[in-house]
Design brief:
single chain; about 425 residues; alpha+beta; Beta-Lactamase; Phosphatase 2c, domain 1; 6-stranded antiparallel β-sheet; 6-stranded mixed β-sheet; 10 helices; elongated
């Protein structure tokens, strides 16, 4: 059976309204468009929107009114909204139920008189949140005979559905703005964190150095450093804080501060890590559950001796006529047991040796098939440098990171990736 002309017109209005509503991302504009459509479906002589949000009974806000030429954003500019208490409008809002007043006379002494003067009939469309009418839309008529009560139940239903949609849009907007604000802060944290890393790698006699540093988020917990020490010696340090993001970045900054405040110049790597561990465990990690893996070595260019100690960190790769790790002296990570003592070992580097210090974000990079990059692929990439056979550190770093990216096949990094390469000349 075909629709009546009136029903067909109503369908066309609703269809156009729903299309327009679906295009909106701003809740204020959404409400404006929806209100305009509702007024086409239910013409009135005046309307007013009330809200008790951010008030205490019997107070309420006027959020929109047919007599205004412009309406402030009620979610962002609530202080610009008229705030009333009691009166006929307060009774309508706090009644917590749909109401029909077919014959009333506004009282000039009523606090809301300017909004209802000249009107003699109204219906309310309460919008519920948590079981109470937080908002209420009031449609007003001068002549009670103009009220269209046959559509009233569906209007209450539609108003509440629209109220939930608007609340969701406001929440979405607020979440997006909160995320943008947080992201801006994390960018600053990341910039501060990167300022703690060496601005440029130093020139060390007999060593060619290059590094790569990449966080999986705006800020991360990886850290590397190269210290000038007494008698021409150099400290090589790499660390990885457990976790990701801002907490890891803060702990990374703490580790940086402790490393640079270590008394004595130089000291054995085992003593260096022991002191870091004692301070971290005593003051920083016991309450948070964080820990730090670290590797610290002292290189003497005069003898090519590399004295090192390891706190639960990935053993560096030493490429010399094949692949090998340094002798394992790995003890517990920093910040777990306060009285942990760290062992150390020494190796004499030879011309052509390649030493790679790295964090597990390199070897534990995954591809979409959930395969892990691993140390074997790291070794292959270290050899496959593209600098004409000269074996420079920068070319090897580039080769490794290109290999990791190709292996991952677009899968985002789930951990920070740091690589420090030293080629012995």
């Amino acid at each position: 059976m075909p629709l009546t002309p009136a029903a067909q017109r109503e369908l066309e209005i609703i269809d156009r309204l729903m299309r327009d509503v679906s295009l909106q991302t701003d809740p204020t504009e959404l409400v404006r468009i929806y209100s305009k459509g509702v007024r086409q479906l239910a013409p009135s002589d005046g309307w007013i929107s009330l809200s008790r949000r951010h008030t205490t009974p019997p107070e309420f806000h006027i959020t929109r009114f047919s007599g205004w030429t412009d309406s402030p954003d009620p979610w962002r500019n609530k202080d610009a909204l008229p705030r009333l208490s009691g009166g006929i409008l307060g009774e309508l809002l706090y009644a917590d139920t749909p109401l029909i007043l077919e014959d009333f006379t506004p009282d000039p002494a009523d606090p809301g008189y300017e909004y209802v003067k000249g009107m003699n009939a109204l219906i309310t469309l309460p919008q519920y949140d948590g079981g109470v009418a937080i908002n209420c839309f009031v449609i007003m008529m001068k002549d009670p005979k103009d009220l269209r009560l046959e559509r009233y139940p569906s209007m209450v239903w539609q108003a509440n559905l629209f109220g939930r949609a608007t609340a969701n849009m406001v929440l979405k907007r607020d979440l997006a703005e909160a995320y943008e604000s947080l992201d801006r802060e994390l960018k600053v944290v990341g910039e501060i964190q990167r300022s703690l890393l060496p601005e440029q790698l130093p020139t060390i006699p007999g060593l060619d150095l290059a590094a790569h540093y990449q966080t999986s988020q705006r800020a991360g917990g990886d850290y590397y450093d190269v210290f000038p020490l007494r008698d021409g010696q150099w400290g090589l340090f790499i660390a990885d804080v457990s976790g990701h993001g801002t907490p890891a970045a803060v702990m990374m900054a703490v580790t940086h501060a402790l490393a640079h405040s270590h008394p004595g110049d130089p000291c054995p790597p085992s003593a260096f890590l022991t002191r870091l561990n004692q301070v971290l465990a005593k003051r920083y990690t016991q309450q948070t559950g964080n820990f730090v893996t670290a590797f610290y070595a002292i290189f003497d260019p005069a003898t090519r001796h590399l004295q090192y100690s390891c706190a639960g960190h990935n053993p560096p790769r030493l490429l010399r006529d094949g692949s090998a790790t340094l002798n394992r002296v790995a003890d517990l990570p920093l910040g777990i047991v306060e009285d942990q003592q760290y062992r150390e070992a020494t190796v004499t580097l030879e011309s052509g040796d390649v030493l790679a210090l790295y964090t597990d974000g390199i070897t534990e990079a995954f591809n979409p098939d959930m395969e892990m990059f691993g140390v074997d692929r790291l070794d292959v990439a270290m050899r496959a440098h593209g600098d004409g056979g000269r074996g420079g550190a920068a070319a090897r770093v580039t080769s490794v990171m290109a290999a990791v990216d190709a292996f991952a096949r677009g899968k985002p990094a789930n951990d920070d990736r740091t690589l420090l390469v030293a080629v012995v000349r």
